[in-house]
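Record 1 of the preview.
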Amino acid sequence: MPRLWNATIEAHRQAVRDATLDAAQQLVAERGLASVTMSQIAEATGIGRATLYKYFADVDAVLTAWHERQIHRHLHQLAQARAGGEDAAGRLRAVLETYALLCRTHPVGDLVAGLHRGNHVAQAHQHLHDFVTELIADAARTAGVRTDVPADELAAYCLHALGACTGMAEEAVHRLVTVTLAGLRP
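->
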């Protein structure tokens, strides 16, 4: 097949996939994670159920793909936050604040816990831990972050502390980030 044909088909497939995940996201926001069905997703996407099943085996596959996309978006937001910092301390603060604000709006519950069991989540957590460890190590070399505790332990401390932001008021999140950063000082 000509390349243009292949590119067009691939673009169409990606558009259907994106529309499906967007529809799933909207339905989750409106009805909750447990209430979403393949029929609802197909209707919201504007495709037939049979077509939807060509892309995804079941609603769990749609929700897992949606969750993977969310994780990638969050990791991208953290990378952008790092890029906006002027120095090592600023990059660390920006990333920790962004992470805490993402955690603040993170849904909780059994179904969300089910989505978090996937291999994609373990890989993302490891990536996040390595990402924050690197930021802490950089800040320790240049910005007065403690060196008596290994950077990877400090990263785990930060991620666990800030992971507790679910449902907090935004002002409380900023205070927790300040307290967490204070704990990194020598």
